[in-house]
What does this fold into?
Amino acid sequence: MFKKILIANRGEIACRVIKSAQKMGIKTVAIYSEADKHALHVKMADEAVLIGPPPANESYIVIDKVMDAIRQTGAEAVHPGYGFLSENKLFAEALAREGVTFIGPPVGAIESMGDKITSKKIAKEAGVATVPGHMGLIADAEEAVKISREIGYPVMLKASAGGGGKGMRIAWNDEEAREGFQSSKNEAASSFGDDRIFIEKFITQPRHIEIQVLADAHGNAIYLGERECSIQRRNQKVIEEAPSPFLDEKTRKKMGNQAVALAKAVGYTSAGTVEFIVDGDRNFYFLEMNTRLQVEHPVTELITGVDLVEQMIRVANGEELALRQKDVKLNGWAVESRLYAEDPYRNFLPSIGRLSRYRPPEEVADATRAVRNDTGVFEGGEISMYYDPMIAKLCTWGPDRASAIEEMRVALDSFEVEGIGHNLPFLSAVMDHEKFTSGNMTTAFIEEEFPDGFDGVELPEDMLRRVAASAAAMYRVAEIRRTRVSGRMDNHERKVGTDWVVSLQGQEFPVVIDADPMGATVTFKDGKSHRVSSGWVPGQSLARLDVDGTLVVIKVGKIPGGFRMRLRGADMKVFVRTPRQAELARLMPEKMPPDTSKLLLCPMPGLIVSVAVAIGDEVQEGQALCTVEAMKMENILRAEKKTVVSKIHAAAGDSLAVDDVIMEFE
It folds into this structure.
């Protein structure tokens, strides 16, 4: 077995590989850029080597610098993780020349499957159903329009060397094909150093389901079930689960066998993933093969008990797979939520900054439930603008889908993140969405269910009452604490009453609290009551309460006269007042937000790539105004209505902060 391996990556996947290597008794080497000198993967590894400045194209994807780190440390093998150099055949070839083992597939498989155009041709020859499209190279935007018309709109423009949603655009007409071709080409060049684009038919109402394969160099290949990855935003997966709620055993076996056949056709070894689009009739079409470990691999590990990183290392060491297809059993259900540094209230735009608070839920694993958090950050750490915005993968397991989802609801409510914008509220909202809980979703789920973006959740009446009862009981605890403050003036005894009015989500609930040493019974005006017990004390930012025998977890912050409470995707100001205070509060005027309708504000920290208009230009609704790049993605900002540009405050090359003014309108 290898004595020392280098992980040619960063963040959570580097930490994940280190964990398996440590379990196997293998020493690890981390590489890091100047931006990552205090990163978690650097602290976890046995050795660490600085390889360059923050931008990935000056550090993590510079082959010569990684090779220098290998020579310095004497690493015998390299695990590439995902992204960066993981599917770069030149890197695998460089390792081979140095006699260093690549913990991944052979160069030939990387080359043939890593190129989407070539991989589709091979899949077709191997008898795998493929999506109609143009697999040749496309010279310019006009040729892209011509090809798109021949295939028939809608079409998908994709970077040939792409992955992770980068360099992908859907076009529904000629104009979008032209615009999408250029944007895809630009993103592909900056992310992968390869700007080749291809076009294929975009299948409406699709599901994205992928098969995990594992193969050794001795001719053995197996599949480890499937993963449902249909909850996506901008072609980037957000929530995954295993198995899929849509597949039956017959389709699973058919897809698995085809995935294995494709792997064998290209002499594949190591872990890999074959991705399919599946329509409503369970017809499936080959999309691509990822010749690396997938981001969402933990859900497969949770339902199969197979450590995929360990298997990759063993296969790279020349070992034969200990598992055969008959040994693979799918046990229970697993769900993964990707925690991104993206602000859902600003249409999921990237957010950077310091993690002033980062407290994941406690990890557990037993026969009835599991909670796992794969992460590469820590409290006090910095979320950088240079890399992917994903900061953690929260996974839960249960004996069935409903229990796995309920575990995820509680885990998301228990996850404390402060200092940056993040998508925890959105993830919680999905867990309670009827379309998700029923399993009846497609890759258009977010687009269809959140067409205007995400602006929070309104809790249903039953949950709202439980929160109101919890707030009342918690406020009473805080009030009692205030009565016991030492140094009070004489004859100023403070009494804690029993009658309160709880205001939240635009509603008022008059309640009466009957407390005892074990908790409190909160009775509403209509006679219904809730029993609340908890060990919460004022100042704690997380409250775990038992409400009528059900666990309710709430993130709590103090505000005058009540609490800021966050759970299940809702973010509410909850006021607990005496009846007289509530009466007076109704008379208070509401403060209105400032008018920004005549301003174009920068929605995220980023770099102005281009400004498409000039002062005095009349612009139409939907017209592109400028392009902002953040976290490797180009974002086109468009006019919300017909207007005239009166001032422009930014130019190409300018770095802007959130809400900086880009331009003004008449």
